[in-house]
Amino acid sequence: MTAAHPPRILYLVKQVELAVRGRLDTVLRPHGITVTQYTALTVLEQHPGMSAAQLARHTFVSAQAMDGIVRALGDAGLIERTRDPGNRRRMTISLTPGGTALLADCRDDVDRIEAEAFGGLSGADRDTLSEWLQDARRALEDAPRTVD
């Protein structure tokens, strides 16, 4: 018996996310960090000097959860918080050399997971998929949230 409809794209994206998260958890555990902590570090690698609120939005966690993540990463010496010279009430967060080194240590394992997941795609197809996923994320961020 075949399904009346193919699986929804949202379902497939969620299945990929769960599979990737499980694999990431396995390779990151020996480094002493969680998937969410790793995500925060990679966001900071791309966007140093973020506030905790900005980092929470980019990492897809609540501000309250980010407080614990920032505390743990700071205690581990992976990030540093400094006062923003342009706004003395704002603290910015950046990687320490230890945080940069940890990401470098994780890179081969993470690259291997990405290659296993998307190795069947050409470079052009990977670029296209990346663009589509970024477009989808932006569209959802820009759309008003409604509940009917």
UniProtKB/TrEMBL annotation:
Pfam families: MarR_2
HTH marR-type domain sequence ranges: 6-138
Protein name: MarR family transcriptional regulator
Record SMART domains: HTH_MARR
Lineage, broadest ranks: Bacteria, Bacillati, Actinomycetota, Actinomycetes, Micrococcales
